[in-house]
Amino acid sequence: MFNLILFGPPGSGKGTQSEKLIEKFGWIHLSTGDLLRKEIANETQLGLEAKAFMDKGQLVPDEVVIGMIGSALDANPTAKGFLFDGFPRTTAQAEALDALLTSKGSEITLVLALEVSEEELVARLLNRGKTSSRPDDRNEDVIRKRLLEYDQKTAIVAHHYAKFDKVAKVKGEGSIDEIFQSLREQIEARQPA
Ligand code: B4P
User: Fold this and answer.
1) Is 146 a catalytic residue?
2) Which residues does a 6 A CB cutoff place in the pocket of ligand 1?
3) pLDDT at 192
4) Residue range 111-134: mean pLDDT, rounded
5) What does pTM read for this prediction?
6) Nearest Cα to Cα of residue 91 among 162, 37, 11
7) Which of 1, 35, 131, 184 pairs with 166 at a CA distance of 20 to 30 A?
8) CB-based contacts of 97: which residues, under 8 Å, 6+ apart?
């Protein structure tokens, strides 16, 4: 089983690259952002609670996203691999993910960390805000709050996996196809095509 974490700040291209990676490698795509937005669209209790955090650019509480990921893993017992997109975002989430995978006799194979400058991130998200229905992309203050949350709570997650020599950095600026090629090379170095 190949379990990949696509890591990086908001706007670094995780969602964009995930679509291409899933098509190429056939893994199950688990995006906590997408799962949360689905809950909001369905107006569930969980969605209403999550929306209050997301609209302010804050992380949703750990227990909510850990529960969602646990259910998604259980729902896909025959998967040949998972691509985790936007998860884990805190050390507590990383430890919970490790425990969930261990209980299934598996583990994280690789963490690919996309690196993009802050000004490029802000520009990309404001640009997406012009066309998407995402309220968290429309306001520069909310975008900067998301980047601050990343620096304060999420960046450290890479250190957790670096201890196990599982992190590779990838330049996240350039064309979408160039970045995909770099990600693919890292994956194939660990799993021959
Ligand atoms: P997410 O849905 O995870 O979204 P994101 O990090 O903001 O964006 P992503 O990184 O996927 O965007 P992409 O680069 O693809 O999170 C939203 C919110 O949900 C969080 O703020 C939080 O509140 C909550 N949440 C989610 N997971 C959570 C968790 N585990 N714990 C707690 N809270 C959680 O795309 C950005 C833009 O860049 C696009 O318009 C794209 O077209 C463009 N782009 C991509 N690649 C490009 C390139 N190479 N060049 C130019 N533009 C590019």
Assistant:
1) yes
2) 10-16, 32-33, 36, 53-54, 57-60, 65, 86-87, 89, 93, 124-125, 128, 136, 146, 176, 179
3) 57
4) 96
5) 0.93
6) 162
7) 35
8) 66, 69, 84, 87, 88, 108
pLDDT value of residue 2: 96
Are residues 113 and 168 in contact, defined by beta-carbon separation less than 8 angstroms?
A: yes
Please name which of 114, 67, 66, 63 lies closest in space to residue 88, comparing C-alpha atoms.
66
What is the residue-wise DSSP string for 101-154? HHHTT----EEEEEE--HHHHHHHHHHHHHHS--GGGS-HHHHHHHHHHIIIII
Give the model's pLDDT for residue 133. 84
How many residues are recorded in the chain? Answer: 193
Residue 180 CA to residue 16 CA, distance in Å, equals 9
Handedness of CA 115, 177, 79, 12 (dihedral sign): positive
Tell me which amino acid residue 55 is: D
Q: Which of 60, 71, 62 is nearest to 100 (CA)?
A: 71
Give the model's pLDDT for residue 101. 96
